[in-house]
Amino acid sequence: MTSGVTLDDIKGNAPDDQKQMCIGVLDFYSSLKDHFAYSVGQRLKLLEVSVGPMINKKSQAIVVCEISLEDDMLNLLGTLHGGCTAYVVGPCFACSSIAIAIAPQGVNNPEEWWGKVSVSQALNVLYHAPARSGTTLRIVSETIVLGGRAGTIRCEVSTFISDQINSCYTLARCIVNRDANTWFFVAGVERSAREYSEFAKDKAHSTSVTGAYFCT
């Protein structure tokens, strides 16, 4: 494996096929040698993939990763760069959504992901404390709402030793080309009144759940 992670390395109660799909995500990021932040992506390690009980008829997934905080992730003050944290949580968000939305469909070949994966729609960030070079970051990604058209995923980045939360992310994701009744949530694309109304309901629900998480 490009990322160096095998099924034996991953904890959690998720089936092996779902864990394997998450490994595929990290392998993808680890293979982008000519792309942005390659040296960072290749250090990301997958620790756990768990699937929780059905809540309100929706599946739940938790993905835990870790990464060593090194000089290529720092800002001018010697702490974790905000933009780098946004990049690091991306694969974790992807693993959470893939474990729920893609693997159960029997799509095991990464080449078949396109048309079934999701894209980022909005990213809300709360920075709590700086993280310094030499520490290990734990990244916990948890699905809040993940439906057929849109979903929300919450992610916490904390130092591995002290469990001090450094930043919280909440990501709204939308599914692209999921089935024959394709929904494109892209700026500038015309939508019918019914489509816009249903999309607005999904978005409002995601926002309310997000607020509850940050207020508790």
TrEMBL record:
Residues 78-158 form the Thioesterase domain. It holds the Pfam family 4HBT. InterPro entries: HotDog_dom_sf, Thioestr_dom. Gene3D superfamilies: Hotdog Thioesterase. It comes from the Eukaryota. SUPFAM superfamilies: Thioesterase/thiol ester dehydrase-isomerase. This is 4HBT domain-containing protein. It comes from Thanatephorus cucumeris (strain AG1-IA).
